[in-house]
Amino acid sequence: MSKVTRATKMLEQAGVAFTVHTYDYDGDADRIGLQAAEALGEEPSRVLKSLMSLVDGKPVCVIVPSDREVSMKKLAAAFGGKSAQMMKPADAERLSGYKVGGISPFGQMRAPRAAIEEMAMAHDLVFINGGQRGLQVRLDPRDAARVLSAIVAPLVA
Questions:
Q1: Which domains does the chain have, with CATH numbers?
Q2: Is beta strand 113-117 parallel, antiparallel or unpaired with respect to 151-153?
Q3: What is the rounded CA–CA span in Å between residue 134 and residue 124?
Q4: How far is residue 49's CA from residue 47's CA, in Å, rounded to a whole number?
Q5: What's the pLDDT at 23?
Q6: N or C: which end of the chain has fewer CB within 10 A?
Q7: Which of 108, 90, 102 is closest to 35 using CA atoms?
Q8: Contacts of 76 (CB under 8 A, 6+ apart)
Q9: Quick one: pLDDT at residue 28?
Q10: pLDDT of 141
Q11: What secondary structure does DSSP assign to the chain, as a single string?
Q12: What pLDDT is stored for residue 33 in this prediction?
């Protein structure tokens, strides 16, 4: 497994301090984010999942703790939209340039607007997918928000 991805290159170019962590990815896990947290020995609230969604038909990347579910109503409101829905996996892969289970908000082919759950900001460091299945980057959530020009808002149900 390469530890250099478009995501890690983007973070390096932005001057963000981060560390790379690998784990045994289980594609059969019911909840991939929770499996990552368990494999890393971390609290699920510190391991964030990156989900590709649509708000009023426009793509967005939403980043929430792996043990929480996105509220579509809150997601739409965060972007000033009327409705939100999850993106189909094939569309998420095509837009992001990453495989499902390895989608990072960093270094996407056509970077959509992003939002991060405000609860994540309570942590000094969080884990976010590094652009490959089984690869996470650990960084300050404020750095993630800054690099992505992300909206920080309540997003979970």
A1: 6-153 (3.90.960.10)
A2: parallel
A3: 22
A4: 7
A5: 93
A6: N
A7: 102
A8: 55, 56, 82, 83, 84
A9: 82
A10: 98
A11: --S--HHHHHHHHTT--EEEEE----TT-SSHHHHHHHHHT--GGGEEEEEEEEETTEEEEEEEETTS-B-HHHHHHHTT-S-EEEPPHHHHHHHHSS-TTS--STT-TTPPEEEEEGGGGGSS-EEEEEEETTEEEEE-HHHHHHHHT-EEE--B-
A12: 86
Distance CA 124, CA 39 (A): 20
Residue 60 structure tokens: 């967005």
Please tell me the pTM assigned to this model. 0.94
Sign of the dihedral through C-alpha 120, 77, 6, 30: positive
**Cα–Cα nearest to 22, from 8, 53, 11, 60:** 8
Structure tokens that stand for 97 in this block: 């340039």
b or e along 98-120 (b: 16 or more beta carbons within 10 Å of the residue's beta carbon)?
Answer: beebbbbbbbbeebbbbbbbbbb
Ranges in the chain, pLDDT < 70: 1-2
